[in-house]
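Milestone 3.1: sequence recovery, worked example.
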């Protein structure tokens, strides 16, 4: 088990024991991309071998840049667990 997976399992058991047998238990590695306007698309993220993707809800941090539902659905269909970072009060 890699360091990232160990951390994910530790976090899941330390803060929410129910997750230890849930979706986080299958995470071996993860990808963290905030404001992917630099070129990374949800399709690019779907094509990776990572089990978990943490990304912004927007390409550029604006409401106009929010990912379309079909883009998110395609990422989800790739079998990845998805967590969205949504800034508050910016």
């Amino acid at each position: 088990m890699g360091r990232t997976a160990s951390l994910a399992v530790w976090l899941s058991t330390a803060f929410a024991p129910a997750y230890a047998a849930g979706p986080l238990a299958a995470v071996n590695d993860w990808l963290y991309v905030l404001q992917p306007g630099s070129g990374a698309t949800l399709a690019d993220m779907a094509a990776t071998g990572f089990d978990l993707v943490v990304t912004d809800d927007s390409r550029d941090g604006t409401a106009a840049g929010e990912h379309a539902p079909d883009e998110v659905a395609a990422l989800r269909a790739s079998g990845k667990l998805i967590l969205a970072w949504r800034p508050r009060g910016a």
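Strands lie at 30-33, 52-56, 81-85. DSSP finds three helices and three strands in the chain.
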